[in-house]
Amino acid sequence: MLTKSDLASPDALLEMYGALGVPHVVTTRDEFVDGAAAERVREHLKGRTTAFVGHSGVGKTTLVNALVPPERRRTTGVVNAVTGRGRHTTTSALALPLDDEEGGWVIDTPGVRSFGLNHVDPSRVILAFPDLVPGTENCPRVQPRRAGLRPGRVRGGGTRRSGAPRLAAAAPGHQGAARGD
What we know:
Strands 1-3-2 form a three-stranded mixed sheet, with helices on one face. The protein has six helices and three strands. It is 24% helix and 7% strand. By secondary structure, the chain is an alpha+beta fold.
């Protein structure tokens, strides 16, 4: 879900993650006014429980409000006319039922101000996502601990890919090299 695409082009971001084949919906502010954004998003949420997570002011609560019945809507802040950014307003997570016969829930969450995983051993995190393990094959940062090799220590030689390009290259059916080599 990418909101506020009227403020900046989403093309670079979509290109970077496109090879992963992750479904996405891009919206603009005007589409929230006429309801088009809510309908496109709703198609992806039917019968699911979905949490909206992102930085403060990106439009999570505005999106949730467009999806739920009017009596369930939450308060939102005013968008700054100079920066075009929203203000941190949501202070607690709340699960709300969608307004449709197919069922489903949306969870509105407070904005993320910062996120860090420096305290987490990368070689252990990947074990929680077995479908991503093939994308880590040549990554020295997530190889299981070996004698003399600590996570985060780079070995010499080889081509390194990082993030989305490495995962895309390991995806089933991927053809050729991923961007970012």
